[in-house]
Amino acid sequence: MLPKGIMFDLDDTITTFNAVAEPTWKKICKDYANQYSIFDDAENLYKTVRETSNWYWSDKKRHVNGRLDIDNARKKTLEIVFKKMEIEDLSLCYGCSLCVTTCPVSSIELIPR
């Protein structure tokens, strides 16, 4: 049976995605820093991710295009992070991007009325 309708939440009015974004990034940065000696520390990785993300999303054109393909926007942002940190192994970059894409999904909740 098909549903009567489908609702899309694009701005955190029905579900809480933004609330889980920061803890998710911090956890992934910590996991990567602990797992791969190439990273100096989790806090520096997280700081570089935040700075780069803020820069990426502050541009109107990048913002519009990024929202149309969020997975690719994360990859591009992390490519810049890795370049800033002089890390050449992009397989780690793409793995990190995939973690961010899949991790918060289980944490998203409906916003109470």
Comma- or semicolon-separated keywords:
mainly alpha; 113 residues
In brief:
Helices cover 64% and strands 0% of the residues. It has 113 residues and is an all-alpha fold.
Q: Percent of residues in beta strands?
A: under 5%
Find the count of extended strands (DSSP E, 2+ residues).
0
| Inertia-based shape | globular
Proportion of residues in helical segments: 55-70%
Order of helices and strands: HHHHH
Mean pLDDT comes to 84
Largest sheet: none
Number of distinct helices: 5
Distance between the termini: 28 Å
Q: Return Rg in Å.
A: 16 Å
Provide the structure class.
mainly alpha
Low-confidence stretches at least 5 residues in length (pLDDT < 50)? none
Task: Describe what this molecule looks like in 3D.
The chain is globular, with a radius of gyration of 16 Å. It is an all-alpha fold and 113 residues long. The protein has a domain of 78 residues. It is 64% helix and 0% strand. Helix 1 crosses helix 2 and helix 4 crosses helix 5.
Element layout with pairings:
Layout (H helix, E strand, L loop, with lengths): L17 H18 L6 H17 L1 H9 L1 H15 L5 H13 L11
Helix pairs in contact: 1-2, 2-4, 3-4, 4-5
